[in-house]
Design a protein that fits this description.
The complex is a heterodimer of chains A (112) and B (115). With 112 residues, chain A is mostly beta strands. Chain A contains no helices and 12 strands. In chain A, the strands form 3 sheets. In chain A, strands 2, 5, 6, 10, 11 and 12 form a 6-stranded mixed sheet that branches. Chain A is globular, with a radius of gyration of 13 Å. The N and C termini of chain A lie far apart (41 Å). In chain A, 38% of the residues are buried. In chain B, strands 2, 4, 5, 6, 9, 10 and 11 form a 7-stranded mixed sheet that branches. Chain B is built from no helices and 11 strands. Chain B is globular and about 40 Å long. Chain B is an all-beta fold and 115 residues long. The chains are: A mainly beta (112), B mainly beta (115). Chains A and B meet through strand 5 and strand 6 of A and strand 5 and strand 10 of B.
Amino acid sequence: GDSVTQMEGPVTLSEEAFLTINCTYTATGYPSLFWYVQYPGEGLQLLLKATKADDKGSNKGFEATYRKETTSFHLEKGSVQVSDSAVYFCALRKVGSYQLTFGKGTKLSVIP
Amino acid sequence: SQTIHQWPATLVQPVGSPLSLECTVEGTSNPNLYWYRQAAGRGLQLLFYSVGIGQISSEVPQNLSASRPQDRQFILSSKKLLLSDSGFYLCAWSRKQGGTGNTIYFGEGSWLTVV
């Protein structure tokens, strides 16, 4: 079946450090890929998405590129801030499916 | 703009008691609606989805049920809660047009603790 694998956390970084959160997926066809963010005590917010190979999603300084050849959608940010501390979820949605398949989430803590 | 609201935000219920979580979407019509659960250490799991009034599909068999009495209202219920029902419940919606590239938008979530 479809699956999403994220790097396990927690990840702790100093402010202004470079962030990479790895995400790989297993699915047939060409799913759409998403990154969601969950701040403490809140629901999920869409961070960015990509719907086809080589698309780059970007938002709030975060970027991720849909790599079909490596089945990956790694999240990156050049300089993290304390306010980026949250749990980040990678997800996919296949053609014809109503379901989002999520990774287990990666907790990021950014310290001053 | 579209908004999604769910309530109550926090709930503590004894084992065997009933449950009702409500969700409404504003600013759109005929959305797809979803209930997800986020349990500790288990990630996010789709429980139910609905493509229209009275149309409910269940992804996971359990003692929960869902109903959609109105176009933009989605209700999650249980007649008798179990300890294992504890978790963070998220209502969500998406447009129908555009296929699976459409974003699924989530509500603020409801924390349920069964004691």
